[in-house]
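F.,

This is the one I mentioned.
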């Protein structure tokens, strides 16, 4: 996914953790500050992050709190936000640990073998998404929020998810998704749709079909609320073929 020219960077400064051992272990304050510092136009400046030992220490302290957070006591939007943040944070951590790296596919077991301590459980990234996030909420928009450190994913938000912003942010991510032709495009005269591999039967079609808010027949109809009226009418007609775009595994690095 293309990025515009990065905005000028502010002078480097150390990000201090906003939470303490006595505070809320589940709060994403420190992660929020780090994202604001290192996310540039939806990409992560891993090289600059890796070079800042103080911020790496802050990040590791935050991840340690995520590991000790009692996730079983979090409910609703806060639970949703916690698991999206955990997934995104440990993707960044995995890249930083392997840096320099061209893509996560070059790191053995990046998604399905390497375990991280999250919510007092040892989990892979796949466990976080497919066991802790998607099943409890049955909200397939989560696929637009979790970012597996690549350009196939929707660009990472420059802020952490919270109970207060998770609904608005995920809705915005869905609208961002349909605006990118690498994710979604239609040719109405040719009766053809191209959409991200996220919607394919081999990947997550079942999640979109099982979404508690979904009323359509084809998974791609999930996008109806986020497109213009003409495209929405076309999608709901069901009279088209669907082709799935290849996934872009290139690293979502800022440089």
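My design for it:
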């Amino acid at each position: 996914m293309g990025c515009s020219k990065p905005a000028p960077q502010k002078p480097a400064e150390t990000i201090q953790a906003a939470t303490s051992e006595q505070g809320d272990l589940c709060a994403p304050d420190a992660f929020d500050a780090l994202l604001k510092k290192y996310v540039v136009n939806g990409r992560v400046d891993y090289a600059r992050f890796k070079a800042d030992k103080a911020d790496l220490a802050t990040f590791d302290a935050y991840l340690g709190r995520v590991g000790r957070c009692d996730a079983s006591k979090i409910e609703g939007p806060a639970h949703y936000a916690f698991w999206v943040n955990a997934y995104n944070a440990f993707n960044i951590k995995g890249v930083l640990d392997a840096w320099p790296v061209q893509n996560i596919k070059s790191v053995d077991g990046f998604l399905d073998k390497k375990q991280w301590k999250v919510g007092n459980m040892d989990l892979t990234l796949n466990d976080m998404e497919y066991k802790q996030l998607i099943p409890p909420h049955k909200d397939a928009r989560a696929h637009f929020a979790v970012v597996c450190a690549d350009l196939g994913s929707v660009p990472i938000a420059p802020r952490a998810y919270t109970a207060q912003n998770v609904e608005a942010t995920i809705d915005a991510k869905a609208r961002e998704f349909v605006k990118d032709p690498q994710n979604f495009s239609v040719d109405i005269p040719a009766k053809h749709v191209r959409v991200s591999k996220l919607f394919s039967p081999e990947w997550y079609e079942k999640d979109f079909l099982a979404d508690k808010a979904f009323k359509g027949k084809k998974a791609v109809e999930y996008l109806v609320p986020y497109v213009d009226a003409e495209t929405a009418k076309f999608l709901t007609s069901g009279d088209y073929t669907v082709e799935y775009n290849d996934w872009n595994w290139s690293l979502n690095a800022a440089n």
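The CA atoms of residues 150 and 249 lie 5 Å apart.

Talk soon.
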